[in-house]
Design goal:
single chain, about 350 residues, 5 domains, five-stranded antiparallel sheet, 2 helices, 22 strands
Length: about 350
């Protein structure tokens, strides 16, 4: 069975042979109707014409053999749609290459140093793009397998990357560092909307806004944890607010905790206020907290009601406590307290 290239060459040769035969028929018909005076001239002319046509036919056949091929494997093939094939007689695109191994399209400089190559990845049916600089392969992009980018930074959304990977989501304004190690990400973030890392099911994750670390994901309620490794600690440098209240951020070695009590002589009912010396020396009234409770000191508790209204530090050594006793008896009073701070 003929290949497309063999069929095309055969058709071309048949057309040329038919053209040569038609010229000969016209020559014979003309010779029969004219005298023999100029027969020799006409005969020489027809020989020259036939020789020229035969030479043209040979040239076209040879050209067809080069372009269209004469064997099963063609170096260069052009189909009737103008598609060019290299190593294939059935190009499906304008330019198609049939390559094996690491062969492909190579870009070289004037000294034959390879700069780029689009190729097949080994023996697999995968694509690969490789880029060289100074004889070293710095970029390797594979359709399947490991890829790498060396020799410079990579920018996404920017033409002037400042880090190994620089991602720019929106236009940058104001001042940015000239160089950052590793990763640099900017965008039009809000406190609780920014870069996110989620579980593959999308339900849980952690996000980084411009000043907030937040929990994210499809779950309506999700905890946010800080967990050290091994015997490590979670260190907070600076003041800490919990639900809007300030908490001292101190190391464990500087933290002091004291539990104590103070017994008072019998007091009448009503509102009472007392400054209590707790026995510690904290830095100031803002570096510790106090929890205090006032109760009756008696073996059998009567019907009197003691209500502790407030207790808070007033200095590094004292705190104030206010309470109210609703009742008619005078009883000894005990104040139990807990102070925590530095």
């Amino acid at each position: 069975m003929e290949t497309p290239s063999e069929k095309h060459g055969s058709e071309l040769r048949h057309e040329l042979e038919a053209l040569r035969q038609r010229v000969q028929d016209l020559e014979a018909d003309r010779a029969g109707r004219m005298g023999t005076v100029h027969f020799r001239y006409r005969r020489n002319f027809s020989k020259r014409l036939s020789a020229g046509l035969i030479s043209l036919a040979v040239l076209l056949v040879v050209t067809a053999g080069l372009l269209y091929g004469q064997s099963a494997v063609d170096a260069l093939f052009i189909d009737q749609q103008g598609n060019i094939g290299i190593g294939t007689t059935a190009p499906g695109k304008k330019l198609a290459l049939n390559v094996g191994g690491d062969d492909g399209v190579s870009l070289q400089d004037s000294s034959a140093n390879e700069l780029a190559r689009l190729m097949r990845d080994g023996t697999a049916s995968n694509g690969r793009l490789a880029l060289w600089a100074g004889g070293k392969q710095n970029v390797n992009i594979k359709s399947f397998g490991d890829s790498f980018f060396n020799g410079g930074n990579v920018g996404v959304g920017t033409t002037s990357p400042r880090a190994s990977l620089d991602v720019q989501q929106g236009n940058r304004t104001d001042t940015h560092p000239a160089a950052v190690k590793g990763l640099y990400v900017t965008g039009d973030f809000s406190p609780d909307s920014g870069v996110e890392f989620r579980h593959s099911n999308g339900t849980q994750g952690i996000g980084f806004g411009y000043n907030t670390i937040y929990a994210t994901g499809g779950n309506g309620n999700q905890d946010l944890n800080l967990k050290p490794r091994g015997n490590g600690t979670v260190n907070i440098q600076g003041l800490l607010k919990v639900n809007g209240d300030w908490m001292p951020a101190v190391s464990r070695a500087n933290l002091r905790i004291r539990f104590g009590q103070q017994v008072l002589n019998p007091l009448p009912s009503g509102l009472q206020t007392l400054n209590v010396t707790h026995g510690e020396t904290f830095q100031s009234s803002s570096t510790y907290i106090v929890l205090a409770n006032v109760a009756e000191l008696h073996g059998s508790v009567g019907s009197d009601v003691y209500t502790t209204h407030e207790s808070h530090p007033i200095s590094g050594t004292q705190f104030i406590v206010r309470w109210d006793r609703n009742g008619g008896r005078e009883r000894p009073v005990v104040i139990n307290y807990l102070v925590i701070g530095y």
